[in-house]
Amino acid sequence: MIYWLHLLGRYLARVIPLPVSYRLAALGAPLVFLVWGSKRRNAVANVVQMLGPDQPPGAARRLALAAFCNYGRYLVDMLRLSGAEVKRVEQRLTVLGMEHVDAALALGKGAIFVGGHVGNSDLGAAVLGGRGYPVTIIAETLRPPRWNALVQRTRHEAGINTIPPEGSIRAMLDTLRRNEVLALLIDRPTHQQGEGVPVCFFGAWTRVPGGVATLALRSGAPIVPACVFRKGQGWVIHVNPPLLGQRTASLQADVQRLTQQVMDAMEVFIRQHPDQWFMFRAMWPASTGQPVEAALA
Predict the structure, then answer these.
(1) How high is the pLDDT of residue 286?
(2) Is residue 195 classed as helix, strand or coil in its secondary structure?
(3) From CA 227, how far away is CA 159, in angstroms rounded?
(4) Mean pLDDT across the chain, nearest whole number?
(5) Which parts of the chain register pLDDT below 70?
(6) What pLDDT is recorded for position 140?
(7) Where are the alpha helices (DSSP H) in 53-184?
(8) Per-residue pLDDT at 65
(9) Beta-carbon count within 10 A of 84 CB
(10) What was the pLDDT predicted at 287?
């Protein structure tokens, strides 16, 4: 069913004028916000932590609803994704920090572009690909298989190569050895004991995957935090200066330190555009503090 819904949605998104599609998505978002209780509660709780304790009642709920509306627009953009659409986006696109892309690749070890569930990371990868930078993303494998094939084919047509998370680490290393861009998201929380890397994020402890930092430290590739934001009728890409990991006697400490630096960059991006933070999972465990912090000891 989801395969056929995707096909129908893609057709409608490409024949209906873009402003109308955005408007329809924004109109439907409050209903989704109302009926999808678990995602609503997660989004509101995450925004409460992000805003801090001094915000007026209702501020987090309004901001979470705005994120749902923008997520609807994001889905429209994903359904329209194509090489031709990327060319149209370029006409209303501003890139801040493009020089950091060349600086990272000048080291000759590839570049690991890292984003979060904020803005539109697929669009950013497609823009880089359209500008002549070979880009490979780590893309979640979807079910059923034909839906996954449809989504990955759409990405390929937009100039993005893909590797599944369960794919070979060799494919990732080969991408970096060719001095190309490897892109992935880092901020998917994991709360299982012993999994992930402890980081302080918006003032509370959580865990996120440490694979990005481990790969960077072992390959020597720089990490480049980046994000793509919607701004009015256009887009802005922010590219941060490369982060270079430093090896010491403790790989675990090195991975935690570099992961923390990346999450600090994600925090800045989210603070700048909190209504485009699409984190609908619980970002922090129910009980923060010593159980997570103890992992740093």
Answers:
(1) 67
(2) coil
(3) 18
(4) 92
(5) 286-297
(6) 84
(7) 59-80, 83-90, 98-105, 121-130, 145-157, 169-177
(8) 97
(9) 12
(10) 47
Assign 275 to helix, strand or coil: helix
234 Cβ contact list (under 8 Å, min separation 6): 92, 93, 94
Residues facing residue 206 across a β-bridge: 199
Report DSSP state, residue 196: S
Measured distance CA(240)–CA(245) in Å, rounded: 15
CB 186 within 8 A of CB 226: no
78 touches 22 (CB < 8 A) = no
Residues 6 or more apart in contact with residue 205 via CB below 8 angstroms: 198, 199, 284, 288, 289, 292, 293
Q: In residues, how long is the chain?
A: 297
Write the CA distances from 247 to 66, 104, 107, 111, 172, integer angstroms. 42, 18, 17, 18, 20
DSSP, res 240: P
What is the reported pTM?
A: 0.91
pLDDT in tens, 59-77: 999 999 999 999 999 999 9
Distance CA(297)–CA(33), nearest Å, equals: 40
And the tokens for 27? 């109109």
Please confirm whether the linkage preceding 274 is cis (ω < 30° from 0).
no
Asked if residue 199 lies in contact with residue 208, where contact means CB atoms within 8 angstroms, the answer is yes
